[in-house]
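Entry type: protein chain
Record version: 2
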Amino acid sequence: MKANAAVTALSALAHEHRLAVFRLLVEAGPEGLSAGTIAQKLDLVPSSLTFHTQALQRAGLIGQRRLSRQIFYAAEFESMNALVGYLTENCCGGGQACGPDCQPLEVKPAKSRRRA
């Protein structure tokens, strides 16, 4: 990660609501959460949530997918790990890996059942 990308990501996280959204999505894992669920859990009005998720998306920290009429957001773990790696790359005198590396379990699609 380059310095300007790190600054953009840190700027996006430098707000109480955006930080709360990002932490909630990290906790939710790769499946993410629907916009309605995020708004409900964080007590945010939809227009405010949209504003904050757009900032996180521009920074590359979250992604979105549409499922029918719902929008789901999920943390971009590669970007998060890159940011943490950038912040800790010179930690412990350099040359040592001492930063966390989050690797969420991948969700496997449910197998379809055939009727006999």
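Comment: The longest strand covers residues 62-67.
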